[in-house]
Amino acid sequence: MSAPPRTSRFLRWGFRRYVLGGFPFGKGMLARAFHAVRLLEPLPEGLDEEEPSERRAFYLNHPGWWDPLAAAALAERLRPGRVPVAPIDADVLRAAPVLGWLGVFGVERDAAGRATAAGAKTFLRTARAALDDPGCDLWLTPEGTFASPDARPLRFAPGLGRLVSRDSELVCVPVAVRYDFWTERRPELLLAVGAPVRLGDVEGDRARRSAAAGDAPVNAGECSRFLEGRLEATLDALTVASASRDPARFRSIGRGASRPSDSSPGS
């Protein structure tokens, strides 16, 4: 029987302070790099009131290096007290084993960046163990490699679809991420949360589209395509909101020190 990664409460506390700010680091890493961290409103109905024991996976697009830190900021806002458990390339974890104490687990990949057969088994086993633990949530970037937030269609590795196809109680939450310049010297870190996905949503979508499917269970590929579509819709909404450059459409969940020098000349 597998278990989620063994973590260090002290190191997780230090990592949150380093990323989000607070003693002993002062201004956090995100505040130093971004003008603001903004979450698109409104959030999906009921997201803040979910059952504490709910099995929940958050899946993000993967535009850049900052994604794990963006996820950390959102996890602190949406699920404080939960341990975010996330897969990473096993080679990266071997090079920086301290990441394992933060909730990261390694997945073996081949030269093309795809999970090996052993890596896929490790992912499924450890992800299920994390979801079974009431103190953990699963966070992942199923694209697997960096990709523009404007690229379409999204294409996911099969792991998340396999989890959904075999777990009717799993709730998957799409999270869109963008790093856009508005009117300040530093970029905005923009986040949007889409409507949660359950296996029943995939089944209902197939029933509406094709009566020929009958009672056959949905497969991992169907789940992946539905999850991709839900994240694409969330990304599209975030892109439109970002283009407006209207901070009133967002909730600030982190901000650096505002200084006149941050503004563009003439603003």
Describe the structure.
There is one protein chain. With 267 residues, this protein is of the alpha/beta class. The chain has one domain: Glycerol-3-phosphate (1)-acyltransferase. 35% of the residues lie in helices and 19% in strands. The protein has helices spanning 9-20, 29-33, 67-78, 90-95, 117-132, 159-165, 199-209, 220-244; strands at residues 21-22, 26-27, 36-40, 56-60, 83-89, 104-107, 136-140, 171-180, 188-193, 250-255. The strands form 2 sheets. The protein has an 8-stranded mixed β-sheet with strand order 6-5-7-4-8-9-3-10, with helices on both faces. A two-stranded antiparallel ribbon has the order 1-2. The longest helix has 25 residues, at 220-244. The radius of gyration is 19 Å and the shape is globular. It starts with 8 loop residues before the first helix and ends in a 12-residue tail after the last strand. Mean pLDDT is 91; it is low at 257-267.
How would you summarize what this structure contains?
The protein has one domain (9-245): Glycerol-3-phosphate (1)-acyltransferase (3-Layer(aba) Sandwich). Helices cover 35% and strands 19% of the residues. It is built from eight helices and ten strands.
Largest sheet: spatial strand order: 6-5-7-4-8-9-3-10
**CATH class wording:** Alpha Beta
CATH topology: Glycerol-3-phosphate (1)-acyltransferase
| Tally of discrete structural domains | 1
Which class best fits the helix and strand makeup?
alpha/beta
Strand content: 15-25%
Mean pLDDT reading: 91
Q: Uncertain runs with pLDDT below 50, 5 residues or more? A: 257-267
